[in-house]
Design a protein that fits this description.
The protein is of the alpha+beta class. Helix content is about 30%, strand content about 45%. The radius of gyration is 15 Å and the shape is globular.
């Protein structure tokens, strides 16, 4: 399997509480996050953990990546950790820091591809796969800013 590790940062001119509500409500991501075709809850957990979501993500690269996530840790309003399985396997951790005026959101995505063609293509396609990830994450920061009627102060 080919391993990928990405760290995304969004700095938003929005309150932490509002940002937390939007990030943790993954069912609504397709409404505001360009590139997410599906975020369907397939199981609900208790106290935030155990939430399982069927996901489909697509950017300008003509391929939809499908996987499921399961929430394994929640510390409101600062941390959401998920595991992924499917075409991507690994973990992701959302971290939010902020105040009533601004919020910094980070997403640490540490996954491996499971499809044979992705693994075979990885030596040459790695830059394209990374660009694809960054494109989708940039759309997420822009969409979240629009949803919160806030400025996206920085996105990396």
């Amino acid at each position: 399997m080919a391993r990928y590790r990405f760290l995304t940062t969004w700095l938003l001119g929005a309150p932490l509480a509002d940002t937390w509500r939007a990030v943790q409500d993954c069912e609504r991501w397709p409404d505001w996050w360009r590139g997410i075709e599906q975020a369907e809850v397939i199981a609900r957990g208790a106290a935030g953990t155990g939430l399982r979501v069927r996901c489909a993500w697509r950017s300008v690269v003509p391929y939809t990546v499908r996987f499921e996530t399961e929430t394994v840790r929640v510390q409101p309003p600062h941390v959401i950790e998920v595991t992924a399985r499917g075409e991507l396997e690994g973990r992701g951790v959302w971290r939010l820091f902020g105040s009533d005026e601004a919020t910094c959101v980070t997403y640490d995505w540490d996954v491996e591809t499971t499809k044979a063609w992705m693994n075979a293509a990885a030596p040459l396609a790695r830059p394209l796969f990374a660009w694809n990830h960054h494109w989708i994450m940039r759309r997420g920061g822009e969409g979240l800013a629009r949803l919160l009627d806030a400025r996206l102060l920085a996105a990396t």
